Amino acid sequence: MSSKRIVVVSAGLSVPSSTRLLADMLAEASERAVEARGVEVEVQHVELRGLAHALTDNLLTGFPSQELAAAIDAVRQADGLIAVTPVFSASYSGLFKTFFDVLELGVLDAKPVLLGATAGTARHSLVIEHALRPLFAYLHAIVVPTGVFAATEDFAATGAGAEGELHKRVERAAGEFAALVAGPVGTASAAPTRRLVEDEFEHPTDFADLLKRASDGPPEY
Fold first, then answer.
1. How far apart are CA 119 and CA 88, in angstroms?
2. What is the mean pLDDT of residues 101-112?
3. Integer Cα distance of 78 and 76 in angstroms
4. What is the Cα gyration radius of the chain?
5. Alpha carbon 52 to its chain's center
6. Distance CA 139, CA 101 (A)
7. b/e code 121-134 from CB counts within 10 Å (16+ = b)
8. Cα separation, 211 vs 17, whole angstroms
9. Torsion sign across C-alpha atoms 170, 46, 71, 134
10. What is the pLDDT of residue 1?
């Protein structure tokens, strides 16, 4: 049986956190959906709250701490990513954006991503469409069609129960995500592969090839 790895990045600041609660719901539903396709799955959580200082240091110095480097590497190695943020000032939080700012361009190329967001009011329900989806499109990720937004009233009204509207949205999004992560079509491998800095350290590009690339112009993605 094949195996897939899903990484869940959540940017909740409080404990307990509704953002982490939604992240857990998406992770559990995705795990069930992937396993229903006969594929084993490993789920790893990355909570950005504990990496706040390391992220700031990375912005100032350009180098990640050991713990942050492990989180970045987990995202790099993942077959699929679930990303959940609280809504601040009608957009994703600064902590959430900072994590994706320090990722090397190319880490999310063609990687399936399921998006989620939480807020105190339903007025922010379009935040996934006007803020998160453009960000991950820029990063060349494959964004699941259904994103899941949850206001406080969604948790209160349904209790996250099996019959609630929030549960239905989570299940639909998880099914779409599982199709990309474990489906028969190798969507991710269809995209061109971008060499990362670590690839160059391990297998340096020949100097003659570098000159040829320079004469050909920048690659197109």
1. 8
2. 94
3. 6
4. 18
5. 17
6. 10
7. eeebbebbeebbbe
8. 51
9. positive
10. 64
What is the distance between the alpha carbons of residues 60 and 49, in angstroms, rounded to a whole number? Answer: 18
pLDDT in tens, 125-147: 999 999 999 999 999 999 999 99
Q: Tell if the pTM clears 0.85, that is, is over it.
A: no
Tokens (6 digits) for 91: 């957009």
- Name residues whose C-beta falls within 8 Å of residue 200's C-beta, 6 or more positions apart in sequence: none
Decide if pLDDT at 215 tops 90. no
3-state secondary structure the chain: CCEEEEEEEECCCCCCCHHHHHHHHHHHHHHHHHHCCCCEEEEEEEEHHHHHHHHHHHHHHCCCCHHHHHHHHHHHHCCEEEEEEEEECCEECHHHHHHHHCCCCCCCCCCEEEEEEEECCHHHCCHHHHHHHHHHHHCCCEECCCCEEEEHHHHHHHCCCCCCHHHHHHHHHHHHHHHHHHCCCCCHHHCCCCCCHHHHHHCCCCHHHHHHHHHHCCCCC
Residue type, 179: A
User: Residue 191's pLDDT is what?
Assistant: 52
Structure tokens at 79: 């077959």
| pLDDT, tens digit (0-9, with 9 covering 90-100), for 23-81 | 999 999 999 999 999 999 999 999 999 999 999 999 999 999 999 999 999 999 999 99
Closest CA to 64 of 80, 79, 46, 82: 46
